[in-house]
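Reading a protein record of the kind used here takes only a little practice. The integers have meaning only within a learned vocabulary of local backbone shapes. With that in mind, consider the following protein and its fold in token form:
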Amino acid sequence: MPELPEVEVARRALQEHCAGRRILRCSAADDPKVIDGVSPSQLESSLAGKTVLAAARKGKNLWLRLDSPPFPSFQFGMTGAVYIKGVELSKYKRSAVSPTEEWPSKYSKLFVELEDGVEFSFTDKRRLAKVRLLEDPESVPPISELGPDALFEPMQVDEFMNALRKKKIAIKALLLDQSFISGIGNWIADEVLYQARIHPMQIAANLSKESCETLHRCIKEVIEKALEVGADSSQFPEHWIYHSRDKKPGKAFVEGKRVEFITAGGRTTAFVPELQKFEGPQSNEIPSTKLKRAKTGKKFPGKQESDDEDAEVNENSKPKSGQKSSKGTKKQPKKARDDDEEEEESEKPAKGARGKQVKMASKKKTKSNTEESDSEDEEVNESSKFERRRNSSKGGKKPKKTSESDDDDDDEEEELEKTSKRQPLTKGAKSNQASAQQRKKQRK
């Protein structure tokens, strides 16, 4: 996203070409996502007829001071940019609008026509910027919440060192915190840490005095050098790590040293492990390229990816219901695979339940058969007792034996009866007892 140098170049251009000129007319886009807190018609009527006194900036925010409030303010977001007709400005390549397009561009969110034929347009391709109308931009968020501007309000070395000693977080995350120092973004943080030879995960409070002094100097030098070339990245010094941030891991080198990519402060971070060493305890964050790729699903993190990871984009680039994102499309094969696995897993309990039901049914059937057999055995036992009582009522005489086989049957019957009294009958014993009883009835 545009950082301090890019926004400062836009401020200087507006100051040079617009200050002292009266606004003749303006046109605001009907885009409430960008035109924030004010209607397009209200914004247009509030600016028309007023004179621009100056262009001001703090951090990555810019606003115009007019001869009377309210004032228009611009938060550049990821792709915000200022274009002045007929004036060549260095273009942040993600914000760049083709010079062959119509004027004003179709991406224009606020078009302003001033005296002497001067015209400028604020554009935003990805609709992540904010245009507001404020009575006093410096007294309300987001500008009121910013820390000292890295260019206009630099800390003194001692003040900078004392501030770092109070911060027990990774130095990269601290530099990205706009309430600590405003204007430093992802690429500037990587560059100043590389130039100062400080690991991006280094705990700020554990930095040595020499490292603090070096970092303080590098912040100033990197910003000033970027402004010298009009924030034109193609003219940045060759020894800057900036030029390696969009290369693939394993193929990124600076001054012959390998550049690696990790996640620090929630952003893709380029650094040189051979030169950027830890001093004392390191941050609790995990410097792992595998972790980074696992989170993003991207094979090659680089400058483009690091820019896309801005917190503002993460919040606004989520696909709405009914929409498909390119990232989501890439992950569809995996999602389909996950769905298949879930379906298989959901089937397994069903199969298990079915097997359990079959087993339970089998047990139930066996139990039913056992109960039926026990019932038959009880009937046989009752019949045997009845016969004994009847014989006893006749004088206790036993029935006359007709043959040797009858003696065997009676002996077998008596033995079975005794066995049934001593212990539960087995299935075979029960069957034999039933047969004996049947034969006895037949003889009678």
In short: The first helix runs from residue 4 to 18. DSSP finds 13 helices and twelve strands in the chain.
